[in-house]
């Protein structure tokens, strides 16, 4: 009887883990997809090397407001954003500053030649 109880608990745990994984995968289905204005609206943290560097606020009209602390974190002062085929890019004066590839619903990554990536992560 005890073995049956243990087996039942293990089966339940496996079913729960499988269901949790399926829900997580269903919620995180945006890798490699362009950012839409509806998804963009809000605060995003710029980080690199495991350190949060600054916060950008993206607007539905493709606007960007950068905190003053972003000056050293980015290769320029972004004023706009645009969707790309697999993510988004930050712009200034019509010129691309930094392109990000979409890794998930809330994470974009820019691979740098230096080997230190810059991440853009949605604030919740």
Mean pLDDT value: 83
H and E order: HHEEEEEEEE
- 3D shape: globular
Number of helices: 2
Q: How much helicity do the residues have?
A: 10-25%
How can the largest sheet be summarized? 8 strands, antiparallel
Structural class from helices and strands?
A: alpha+beta
Report strand order across the widest sheet: 3-2-1-8-7-6-5-4
Identify low-pLDDT runs: 9-26
Chain oligomer state: single chain
Map the helices and strands:
Layout: H1 2-27, H2 37-40, E1 42-48, E2 51-58, E3 64-66, E4 80-84, E5 87-92, E6 95-102, E7 107-110, E8 118-122
Describe the structure.
- The protein is of the alpha+beta class.
- It is built from two helices and eight strands.
- It has an eight-stranded antiparallel sheet with strand order 3-2-1-8-7-6-5-4, with no helix packed on it.
């Amino acid at each position: 009887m005890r073995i049956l109880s243990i087996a039942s608990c293990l089966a339940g745990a496996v079913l729960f883990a499988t269901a949790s994984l399926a829900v997580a995968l269903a919620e995180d289905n945006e890798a490699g997809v362009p950012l839409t204005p509806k998804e963009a609206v809000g605060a995003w943290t710029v980080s690199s090397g495991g350190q949060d560097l600054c916060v950008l606020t993206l607007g539905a009209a493709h606007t960007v407001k950068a905190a003053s602390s972003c000056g050293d974190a980015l290769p320029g002062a972004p004023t706009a954003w645009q969707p790309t085929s697999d993510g988004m890019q930050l712009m200034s004066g019509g010129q691309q500053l930094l392109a990000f590839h979409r890794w998930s619903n809330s994470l974009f990554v820019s691979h740098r030649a230096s080997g230190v990536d810059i991440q853009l992560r949605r604030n919740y």
